[in-house]
Automatic annotation (TrEMBL):
Keywords: Lipid metabolism, Methyltransferase, S-adenosyl-L-methionine, Transferase. This is Polyketide synthase methyltransferase domain-containing protein. The lineage of its organism: Eukaryota, Fungi, Dikarya, Ascomycota, Pezizomycotina. It comes from Penicillium vulpinum. It comes from the Eukaryota. SUPFAM superfamilies: S-adenosyl-L-methionine-dependent methyltransferases.
Amino acid sequence: MSVAAPHKDLPRTGVAALLAGLKIPGEIQLPNGAVIPVGIGEPVYRVIFHSERALRTPMTEMGVGRAYLSGDIEVKGDFGALFNARQNLQEKVPLRQKVQFVYDFIRTATKMNAKAIGDHYGLDDEFYLTFLDNRYRFYTQGLFQRPDETLEEASEHKMETMSAALDLKPGMRLLDIGGGWGGVTQYCGARGVHVTTLTLAPNSARYIQRIIEKNNLSGQVFLEDFLDHKPEEPYDHVVIFGVIEHIPNYRRFARRVWDVLKPGGRMYLDGSAAVEKFAVSSFTRYYIWPGTHTYMTLQDVLAELLYHGFQVLDVVNETRDYELTMVEWAKRLDSAKEELIAGWGEQNYRVFRLCLWGGSHAFKTNALQAYHMVVERTSSPGPRPSIPRRFRQFLGSLR
């Protein structure tokens, strides 16, 4: 791909030429210090190229991302506005990465889950808590009743919505899959609900255990994969916030949820979603979400839950909520820039900056969606068709 450069000092190919061809008003600073205005209107950003090589950065997500992480490219001003150029970048997934993904997907899921979670959540708690809400510390979307609400208010609405959907009452037993930093334990435990939390992150387990002990809550936390969890008795309800992205085998997931729930028990699930399964960019899979992280495909999750004897009570689009959440996370991350770089290094700060601003843009443009659903376990296990049966059904549906 090439873009005609409107300025004689810019190369005709590469990311600098791409920026120059956009309508977004901004500035390009060359390695010699010269500043070239682009677009029409008051500049909202400045992209600084520190070398001639940087000017010719390949117009791929991986190329641009790596140039930014290495410091070859610097961005000042409205970082989020630049993601409007993303649609003009090429996506080239290396063959090696494709092979690695297939290998990870077919090998033992629980081992892969633990490694992937450790890679993304392995930094200290304080790193994440600089940008998450300070009430329940959710690493998933809040629910905004108004765009100008605080992140803390949105997190409160999320808990209120979940509690009402599950009709939680004191004495109930709730399973929290992937407990994060204990928001569900904190909220539900204070209301007399016994929360059992499963997490694969040791720092998360320690954090939640401290919440239980400090507040004298009825709850427990296990460092265990949900796919391996076998409770002594079924739970009243299940909640899973932003974890389905780490469990792409929906058939196995639905079967396990059926096994851990009482008849009539409900599950509240939410997550980020894409129209096509496995549609994750090579940069995202390499630097942000390694392993088999996959945005939820709503249609496939619902199909497996229906096949496994659940009835669907509610499905709600929360794409706008996730956009607002990620914008607030990104702003808080940028406000804590110096602290984050001093404590965890420049590259970690830049990786998360790309993740959060890029994510907010993806939700804004509907490249990603977000949903929550509520399902209820019936008394019938459902047809649970095998792979051969599904294939026969597919052939039979052809006209």
